[in-house]
Structures are given as C-alpha cells and as structure tokens.
Design a protein that fits this description.
The protein is mainly α. The protein has 13 helices and 4 strands. The N and C termini lie close together (10 Å).
C-alpha cells in the first residue's frame, strides 16, 4: 500500500517535471518561428487545431463510458477556459515573447504559482491561518516571489554571455529585442499572460468537479480554442500570407506546441489539478526557466541580464517557500483525526446507539 502510494506520488512529480522540459522547448521553438515572420494570432489557431485533431479521437473512444453528460453550465465553463488560456494567455504571450526574450518569458513564468495562490485564496480553494508555520511560509513566499518579479521588471543591468562563442550573434539579437519601451510593454503582456493562465487553472479545477473526464475536457478546450482563436485571428490578422504554412519552423512550432503543450499538458494538468490543486500544478515553473535559459543561449544566442538573474533567484526562493508550505499543509491534513459515526443496534431497548471513534486518516 505504501509503495503504491509512493509510486503514484512519484508519477505526479515526474509528469509535472517532464512538462517543464516541454514548455522550455516551446519557448525557444515558438520564438524562432515568430522571428521568421509567423503571426502569433495564426499560431494559436494552428496549435490548437493540431491538438484537437490528435486528441479528440482518443478522448472519444477512451472516455466514452466515463464521460458525463454535457450541460449548459459546463459548456459555458469550457468556452471561458478556451478564452482564458488558448486565446488571451497565448496571444499575449506571443506579443511578449517578441518584445523580450525566451529566457525572460520563462523567468517571468515563475510568478505563476504566486498569482495562482492569490486567486485560490480569493475563490476559497486555499485557506490561510497565519498562526500556522505552513500558512505563514506560503504568504511570505508569495510576497517574495512578486518582489522578485518586480526586480526583473525594473532592473535590467549588464548582460552576460553564457556561451562566449556566440557573442557576435548575441549582441545583434539583444540590440533588436531589448529596446526599453518594448521591454516594459513585453513585461506587462507577460503579467497578463500569467494572470490568464492562473485563472485557467482555477476554473479548470472547478470544471473538473462537474465534468471529471480529463482527456475529453482537454480536447474540448482545444476545439473551442481553435474556434475562438480563429475568430480573433480573422479580425487581427488580415494578411492572407500569414496563414501560409510549409515544412518549416511554423509547422514545427504549431505541431510541437499543439501536441506537447496543449493536448498532453492540458490532460496531465487536469489529472494533477483534480487531485492536488492548482497551486501544486504551477509549482514547477522555475525548472522551465533554467532549461530555457540554456537552450536560448545555445539556439538563439540570447544573453542573460543581471536583473533577470537576481530576480529569478529571489523568485525561486519565494516559490519554494510556497511549495514547502503547501506540502506541510497537506501533511498536516493527512494527520488530522477523522471522526467516524459508529451505529449499533441495542436489542434490549430496540433503538440505535450512536458512538464516535477516531481515525488518524492513515488507515483505509
């Protein structure tokens, strides 16, 4: 029993860590395609069209016996989910990525757990008792994480070349992408992206209560994201040439992001979100920052700025304060006594007698 529980927990961590490698690859591939002229409005449509075509058949056949009936409320929630993540989040991300850098975008994602935690408090998915060490750690960690994001935003500092051999290309790339007003605008866009993504996880958790079919939910979000994103793209992108796609970085970006970062990600995040909550799902983003920084330096010859480095270190410290508090809270809840009603029938009086017995929550 213990080994099985440990294995289930290990699979949860492994799934979330693996997704960060997928997101890190997406940061680099998508930025490469955007620099080659791919419209982010069109990218969002193609990305979720690919995800829908791949995952809808699997969802239809594998969950046909467990998929609940679709209600109007559930359908409305799915429409909002598609608006929050595929449309608002990813289009703002596309703009921000062009104005900043892949490494900066990944680093800013580190405040996702803090924003998610704040929204979870607002919607009463998390509870805070400042007399408890774990609650205090989560609050302090949230404040520190936001402070780190402000350092990254307001302080840039000198640049560092991770790979000196790429210095010439890196200098050219930095010159094109690092204008001050664009960098600030890109930061604002990233904050909008993160807020939309955090809200997506909060609503996803709520939707899974009424529609506990993770693969079907992922496929439906991708489908609605394709339709809603397509409507937005037709308004925002008037050039017919922007919709052209061939065997190039555009196809790679749409296929990779659709399969890994939409279909698989939505599915795995739904499973973990349903059991562990939205704060846990978002707790692994710093790993993507580290991987992306290395890939960005190797593939895109990007530089790391001192402000980003200092801010990222502060964010990681604050983030893991939140994670520690969350794990401690879970441990305390598992050890709380559970009162079980014990009913017995008294033959002498002909009545039921009700007693209470304690359980430490560790027994089945």
């Amino acid at each position: 029993m213990g080994n099985q529980s440990a294995w289930q927990s290990a699979k949860t961590y492994l799934a979330m860590i693996s997704l960060q490698f997928g997101y890190a690859g997406m940061h680099v591939i998508v930025l490469l395609s955007l620099k080659n002229g791919f419209s982010h409005w069109v990218f969002v449509v193609y990305r979720h069209a690919v995800a829908t075509l791949i995952f809808a058949p699997f969802a239809f056949f594998f969950e046909r016996k467990v998929r609940p009936k679709m209600t109007k409320v559930t359908f409305l929630k799915i429409m909002v989910l598609a608006l929050l993540e595929p449309v608002i989040d990813q289009n703002l991300y596309g703009v921000a990525l062009q104005y900043t850098s892949a490494a900066f975008a990944a680093a800013m994602m580190n405040i996702l757990p803090a924003i998610t935690f704040i929204l979870a408090l607002i919607f009463r998915m998390e509870k805070v008792n400042l007399k408890k060490a774990h609650s205090l750690a989560m609050v302090i960690g949230t404040v520190v994480t936001v402070g780190g994001a402000m350092v990254m935003t307001l302080f840039k500092g000198p640049a560092f070349d991770i790979f000196p051999n790429n210095h010439a290309v890196s200098h050219h790339a930095a010159a094109g992408e690092a204008s001050s007003h664009h960098w600030l605008l890109g930061t604002i866009m990233m904050l909008g992206t993160i807020t939309g993504w955090a809200a997506f996880f909060i609503l996803q958790k709520n939707t899974l209560k009424d529609y506990p079919a993770e693969m079907s939910l992922a496929a439906l979000v991708c489908l609605m994201g394709t339709l809603e994103g397509g409507a937005v793209a037709l308004v925002m992108e008037r050039r017919l040439s922007a919709w052209a796609i061939g065997f190039d970085t555009r196809l790679l970006a749409a296929t990779y992001s659709g399969i890994i970062c939409s279909g698989i990600a939505y599915y795995l995040q739904s499973i973990v979100n349903r059991s562990r909550g939205p704060v846990f799902v978002t707790a692994f983003s710093p790993l993507a920052m580290i991987i992306t920084a290395i890939l960005g330096a190797m593939v895109l010859a990007e530089q790391i700025y001192l402000g980003s480095l200092i801010g990222a270190l502060i964010i990681v410290f604050g983030l893991y304060s939140v994670v520690w508090g969350k794990s401690k809270q879970k441990s305390d809840l598992e050890l709380l006594p559970i009162v079980v009603e014990n009913k017995n029938f008294d033959a002498a009086t002909g009545k039921e007698t009700v007693g209470m017995k304690g359980n430490n929550g560790l027994q089945p």
